[in-house]
Each structure stands twice: as structure tokens, then as C-alpha cells.
Design goal:
- The protein is built from 20 helices and 17 strands.
- The strands form 4 sheets. The protein has a 7-stranded parallel beta sheet. Strands 1-6-7-8-9-10 form a 6-stranded parallel beta sheet. The chain has a two-stranded antiparallel sheet with strand order 2-3.
- The chain is an alpha/beta fold and about 750 residues long.
- Among the domains are: about 190-325, sialyltransferase cstii, chain A, CATH 3.90.1480.20; about 445-530 and about 625-720, sialyltransferase cstii, chain A, CATH 3.90.1480.
- The protein has helices spanning about 15-25, 65-70, 130-135, 155-160, 175-180, 220-225, 240-245, 255-265, 290-300, 330-340, 430-435, 450-455, 470-475, 515-520, 535-540, 550-560, 585-595, 625-635, 655-665, 705-715, and strands at about 30-35, 45-50, 55-60, 70-75, 80-85, 205-210, 230, 250-255, 280-285, 325, 500-505, 525-530, 545-550, 575-580, 620-625, 670-675, 720.
- The longest helix has 13 residues, at about 705-715.
- α5 (about 175-180) runs parallel beside α9 (about 290-300) and α13 runs parallel beside α17 (about 585-595).
- About 25% of the residues lie in helices and about 10% in strands.
Length: about 750
């Protein structure tokens, strides 16, 4: 067993202790925790307010939820607890960012209990322990499973006080309720029956993690000798049976862990989740995406949201059975956190039973922005000391700095000689907005401490707020210095010195358009994300000159669209690859790409980035967009109103938007195909969809603003945008104007 493989799932084992606790509640004798390092399982006291502003000590109790506890809510406007008189509608939504630390409620340690809990028949059961601290912490009849009929409005209003996965804070009732209503009630809450061979009435279980301690342990036979074996995440056994066994009775997962481990560990032979006869699948509902996945799974349809286009049922390879599928209850998850992991100490309280503090001062220098006040944070000259740490959650909307609209400029910029270039426009508003010599690409000599301190004031991908200097600097230092920022040269056959480009998106508007020949007739063709051309050449062409991507879009597109023929990213001769550094995982990807190694840690642990370029990677043809350019695109072209909300830091332009603006800064004449338009409902989501699919608007992008922006640029003749005028695919062309439009 390769040593590295023993550690390959460690990034996913934050839930290992959860699986141990789950198995403890299902077994009657001993749990053999294999490759699991446990910590303290109990803390004697919780501190919380007594409602009068004082701190009281409360030993954990085991009461059932009372009606008053369920009906209590916190009114933000009144800044106090109130009785929720109307339990026929959801309470006002609470947001995590309203709290500076874990809020503690009077009913924090109150849980649903299971009337059908197993009666202990094993004299050696851990439930019969004499350890008083364990007995106080352990609830043998805690409600393990979530299923239809449990989530009425009263229960919703109780659970809406707790963040995911411990409750439904921030979520809407109508987002969660439809999924829960699909979960069948288990015929029995007892997951594992006592084996007939167990004369003493005991159930013996093994919980198997993925720690490297199992490497060459030869524990496989011992593990498989248990009545039941629990595994989780990337439960890789093939080829490692001697060390870890090959039996799986219970497989525990989140939607994300199931999906990503199949992608990440495929190279090690993990091509399907465990499928033993009679296996039980247990899902941890980690967040909204899990309920979206769950709904698709139980309806036998594609999921929505983060897993849009994915059919969850296909991941079970015909072994899914509702009667053997279980979903953990948020109360059980919160019980594990409260009683097994954490010690809560709230030293200050507002007298309401929770800690509720809105941002009042950001953790930066005294001259820095507080909330959203515009101030100059620091002198931006040469500096040798890093600015203090900032956290995007300390701002209730996008912070504005005096230097917010100042950008690095390209010292090598050369003005286009093309008389009809969009950069020679006579439109005063466009000229005021457009910076032709903006620095497009990041390179190794760009990131000193002074530049870090400037960019640290902006959230990713527009800067480096909240991330580690050493990690980012190590990656940036690997980017070779460019000979020229002009990645596209004027073709030798072009007499007018103009560069004509096509930017091709994936919108269904191209389905049946027969524009492939026209697209390929441009000097250069830009594509992004799942740039599927095979089988669609007549509509979208086949050439790709510039391929734009993030690490995530590259990896996920290859997995999600493999069946559609997207076997590899474009590899045309002389192709240019452009990376959007979306966040820390992209810099991690970038550093390993440049060093020609597998990724040593993080989101894409053990992936080898160069493998995704199919032998066509070349440092001289690889570019990384500068955070200043990304922020310029947002600030000057796509400044969404969503940036004034508490979730401002999630909002950014799409990869397609960045690609289009990149083309406008590297080409003279830009034609845009396959971007969504106002009549998007008439077309499928993607041009490669075989049936009509609805366009899904993800919350982190302002699609309507983007459509309006492209339409305005088209009307003002700065770009040409494909607008389909009939189902036959006919279009109306706008002739080149004297002002440089197309």
C-alpha cells in the first residue's frame, strides 16, 4: 500500500469522529475505532446566559423539547427573545454573519428522542458503562434519523436557530421542506439487527478511517471479522484488503464527499462507492446542496444548485434502495458537537441567550475601513510589514477603499493600429470606463509586501483578503515573467492591423444555429469551461485559440461532461491557456502545475495538474489573470446590487464575463456567440443539451446584469452579440461603424 495513499483521505476525515459516535449508538458491545484519533468526548459544563445578563453554569440535561423552547425566537429588530406566537409560518431568517461566535440558546442542548430506540440486551454494551461522565453525555435514545413528517413549522422554527449541518439557519423553509418530505420513514429506527450468531445479544462493529496508520498493518481480517463495518468518504479497499479488509456494512457520506472522492481517488482504483449486499447508506445533510442532491436522488432526477446536471442516482450503480437509505437528523449532529467535541464559554452576553454582535470594527489598522466607510487604510508606498489580518465576514457589504478603483497598468502596452478597433471608440462613456492598458496578467515580480498589502483589502478573486501570504507568494513566484502581455498577434495576412476574435459561450441559443464556419473564420476563438465541440462543430465550430478556466471549472467540467464527449480540454496547436485565480485552491493548483508535481494538500490533494493539459502545457503559453483586472471587470462593468448584501463576498462575474472582457482587451473586433440573452427561456441551458433545459441562475453570479451589459455593449456597437431572431437560427448582422464598433 503506497504510503501516500494512507493519507489521501485525511482532508475529508473531519467527520470521522461523527461516524464513530454514530456507530456507538448502533452497536451494543465495543467499537473498534481503526485509524481514528479521538479527543475528549465530554465537557462537564456549558456557560450561557440566564436571560438576566448573568452567566450561569448549566449541566447538560436530557429533556425533550418543550413547547416554549420550540416557540422561542430571537427578534433582531427588537434585539431580544420573543415568543413566536404564530407557528403557522417560518420565523424571520437568522444569518450566521450576525454572530461573532457560536450563539447559545436556552434550548441548545435539547434534542428529539426516539421512542423506538434499541433496548440494550448486551451485558457488555458500552451503553451499560459505569463511567458517570460518559453516562451523562451519552443519550442512547437520541433521534438518529430525519424523515418525512418530522419537519412541521414548529420544528422548523426550533431548528432555524442553528447553523448547518446542526439546523437550518439562513435557509428558507421552502428550500428544505420539499426534500425532507421525500425521505421515507424507516421501517425501524434500528439500523443494525443483532446477528443470529450473537448468542450474547451483542453487536460488534469496526469503524475504518483512512489514516496512514493502517499502512502495512495487516488488520484486514480482523476488521472484516466484526459483525458490521463502517466506512466513509473515499472507502478504497481494492488492492488494500490485507490492511483494511473489504467488507462494508454502512457507508456514510455527504453529497460532496461522495461526488469528489470518486473524482479524486479514481486514479487509485476507486471507481464506485461500496456496494456490498445489504449495505446501508447514511447521508450527512451538510448544507443546502445536500438537500438539493437528496431531492434529485429520491425523485430519480438531476439535482439542482451546486450539482446541477448531475443525477445522484447514477452514483449508486443500481444499488440504491430507499429502505436502506438513511439521513442523519440535525439534532444528532448538534448533539455530537455539543457533547463530544466542544467546550462553550461565553464570557459576554447581551442578556438574550445568544451572542449577537454586528460588525463594528474590522481587525485592521485604525485607519482601515470599518464596515463600509471609505477610508485610506495605509500608505501604499514601499512596505516591509504585512497588514493585520482581515476577515470578509467582518463587513456587512462590499467595503469601499479610496484606492478601490486604482489598478496596475501595463508598462509594455502598445496602442492598436486598427482604425476600427473598439479601443478607438468615440463613445465618451465607454472611454471613461474602459482602460486599454490595464495589467491583464500576473507574473512573478508583481507580488512584494507593498502590493500584497494593497491587494489584501479585496476579497478573492479580486485580491487576497483573509488568505495566507506565504501560500500565495510561493505560487506567484512560479509564474514566469512574460515577454509581452499581448498574447495574440496580428495575423500576417491582415492588412488593416486588426485582430478579429470570437468569444464562444455554452448557451443553448447556439443549438441549431449552424454558425460553426463563421465562428472558425475569426482570427482567434476564445472558449471557457466545458468547451464541447465534438459533435457540435456545425453550430459552434471546432477551433480554440484561448481557453479560459479556473481549477474548479477545468476539473469539474471534465467529470460532469465526460459522457457528452468532453474527454479533454482543447489542445489546438499554439493554444493559450488562461487561468482565473479564483481563490487559494487555484494558487495551490498553479504552484504544482508550474513545478510539475502532484498537489501536496488542499482541495485537489494528489491531483497532478499537468495531466489535465494532455501533454500540451507550455509555460510560455500559460497566463494567469491579475486580481486588478478581475476587480476592474467587476467595478466598472458588472457591479451588482448583490454586493450590498451580507453575502457580498460570494458574488463575482462569471468565467464567461471575464473571458469576454479579456477578449475586448486583446482583440480589436469582438463577436460574441453563445451568451445568454433576454429571451434565454426559448433555448436549452447548454447548446449540447439534447432536450430543453431551463437556465439556472446561481446565486454567486448576477446573470441579469451580465445580459444587460452585453446588450448595451452590442447596442453601442462596441461588440457584436449573436441574437437569434427565429428558431431557424437566422441573425441580423450589424455592420462596422466609424466609431470602431462591430
Amino acid at each position: 500500500m503506497p504510503k501516500a495513499l494512507g493519507y489521501i483521505s485525511l482532508v475529508l476525515t473531519c467527520f470521522v469522529l461523527l461516524y464513530v459516535v454514530l456507530s456507538i449508538h448502533l452497536a451494543e458491545n465495543r467499537i473498534q475505532g481503526v485509524a481514528v484519533k479521538s479527543g475528549l468526548y465530554w465537557k462537564e459544563t456549558l456557560k450561557h446566559t440566564n436571560g438576566q445578563g448573568g452567566i450561569i453554569k448549566a449541566f447538560i440535561t436530557s429533556k425533550r423539547p418543550s413547547l416554549s423552547a420550540r416557540a422561542t425566537r430571537f427578534d433582531i429588530a427588537e434585539n431580544r427573545f420573543v415568543e413566536h406566537e404564530d407557528n403557522t409560518k417560518p420565523m424571520s431568517i437568522l444569518y450566521k454573519t450576525n454572530f461573532t461566535k457560536l450563539p447559545l440558546w436556552d434550548f441548545e442542548d435539547v434534542y428529539l428522542r426516539d421512542h423506538e430506540a434499541r433496548k440494550l440486551t448486551c451485558s457488555k454494551s458500552l451503553g451499560n458503562t459505569e463511567d458517570l461522565r460518559f453516562k451523562e453525555a451519552f443519550l442512547h435514545d437520541i433521534q438518529l434519523w430525519l424523515y418525512r413528517g418530522q419537519l412541521n413549522m414548529t420544528e422548523w422554527n426550533r431548528l432555524a436557530h442553528f447553523n448547518n449541518p446542526f439546523g437550518f439557519m439562513e435557509y428558507r423553509y421552502d428550500e428544505i421542506k420539499p426534500a425532507v418530505d421525500l425521505i421515507p420513514k424507516p421501517k425501524s429506527s434500528i439500523l443494525l439487527p443483532v446477528p443470529e450468531s450473537a448468542k450474547d445479544g451483542c453487536i460488534r462493529c469496526a469503524v475504518v478511517g483512512s489514516g496512514g496508520i493502517l499502512n502495512n498493518s495487516k488488520m484486514g481480517k480482523e476488521i472484516d471479522s466484526h459483525d458490521y463495518v463502517f466506512r466513509m468518504n473515499g472507502a478504497l479497499t481494492k488492492g488494500y484488503e490485507e490492511d483494511v479488509g473489504n467488507k462494508t456494512s454502512v457507508f456514510v457520506h455527504t453529497a460532496y464527499s461522495l461526488y469528489t472522492t470518486l473524482l479524486s481517488f479514481r486514479q487509485f482504483g476507486y471507481d464506485s462507492i461500496p456496494q456490498d449486499e445489504g449495505i446501508k447508506y447514511v447521508m450527512i445533510p451538510e448544507g443546502l446542496r445536500d438537500f438539493q442532491w437528496l431531492k434529485g436522488l429520491l425523485q430519480g432526477k438531476e439535482a439542482t444548485g451546486n450539482f446541477k446536471g448531475v443525477r445522484p442516482l447514477s452514483f449508486f450503480n443500481g444499488h440504491f434502495n430507499e429502505s436502506r437509505f438513511y439521513v442523519l437528523h440535525p439534532d444528532f449532529l448538534r448533539y455530537i458537537r455539543n457533547r463530544e467535541y466542544c467546550s462553550f464559554a461565553v464570557e459576554k452576553s447581551n442578556g438574550t441567550g445568544l451572542v449577537q454582535v454586528y460588525p463594528t470594527e474590522s481587525p485592521v489598522t485604525k485607519d482601515a475601513a470599518i464596515a463600509n466607510v471609505t477610508k485610506n487604510p495605509v500608505h501604499l508606498g514601499m512596505q516591509s510589514t504585512l497588514v493585520p489580518v482581515m476577515d470578509k465576514l467582518n463587513f456587512t457589504s462590499l467595503p469601499q477603499w479610496e484606492f478601490d478603483d486604482l489598478y496596475r497598468l501595463d508598462p509594455q502596452f502598445k496602442q492598436s493600429v486598427c482604425t476600427t478597433s473598439l479601443r478607438n471608440s468615440t463613445d465618451p462613456l465607454f472611454n471613461k470606463t474602459f482602460i486599454p492598458n490595464i495589467q491583464l496578467f500576473l507574473q512573478s515580480d508583481h507580488l512584494n509586501v507593498s502590493e500584497w498589502n494593497r491587494l489584501y483589502h479585496f476579497n478573492n478573486p479580486f485580491g487576497y483578503m483573509g488568505v495566507n501570504y506565504t501560500d500565495i507568494k510561493a505560487a506567484v513566484d512560479t509564474i514566469p515573467k512574460l515577454h509581452s502581455n499581448q498574447i495574440l498577434q496580428v495575423p500576417t495576412e491582415e492588412d488593416g492591423g486588426c485582430i478579429r476574435c470570437a468569444v464562444v459561450g455554452t448557451s443553448g441559443i447556439l443549438n441549431g444555429s449552424r454558425l460553426g464556419t463563421e465562428i472558425d473564420s475569426n482570427h482567434y476563438v476564445f472558449r471557457m469551461n466545458a468547451a464541447i465541440v465534438e459533435g457540435h462543430e456545425e453550430d459552434v465550430g471546432k477551433r480554440t485559440s484561448v481557453y479560459v478556466h479556473t481549477a474548479h471549472s477545468l476539473i469539474s467540467s471534465l467529470m460532469l461532461h465526460k459522457k457528452r464527449g468532453f474527454q479533454q480540454i482543447p489542445t489546438d496547436k499554439d493554444i493559450k491557456y488562461v487561468l482565473i485565480p479564483e481563490g487559494p485552491r487555484d494558487y495551490n493548483f498553479l504552484e504544482s502545475l508550474m513545478k510539475n508535481r502532484s498537489i501536496p494538500s488542499g482541495a485537489y490533494f494528489k491531483h497532478t495538474p499537468r495531466n489535465y493539459y494532455s501533454g500540451h502545457f507550455n509555460e510560455s503559453s500559460y497566463y494567469v489573470l491579475h486580481p486588478d483586472f478581475l476587480r476592474y471587470v467587476r467595478n466598472r462593468f458588472l457591479k451588482s446590487k448583490q454586493l450590498q448584501t451580507k453575502h457580498w463576498w460570494l458574488v463575482r462575474p462569471t468565467n464567461g464575463a471575464f473571458t469576454l472582457l479579456l477578449a475586448m482587451h486583446t482583440c480589436d473586433i469582438v463577436r460574441v456567440y453563445g451568451f445568454s440573452t433576454a429571451d434565454h427561456s426559448k433555448y436549452p441551458n447548454y447548446y449540447y443539451d439534447t432536450t430543453h433545459t431551463k437556465l439556472v441562475f446561481f446565486g454567486n453570479h448576477d446573470y441579469r446584469l451580465e445580459m444587460e451589459t452585453w446588450s448595451k455593449l452590442h447596442k453601442d456597437k462596441h461588440i457584436w452579440l449573436y441574437l437569434r431572431t427565429s428558431d431557424s437560427g437566422n441573425v441580423t448582422f450589424l455592420e462596422t461603424q466609424e466609431n470602431g464598433g462591430v
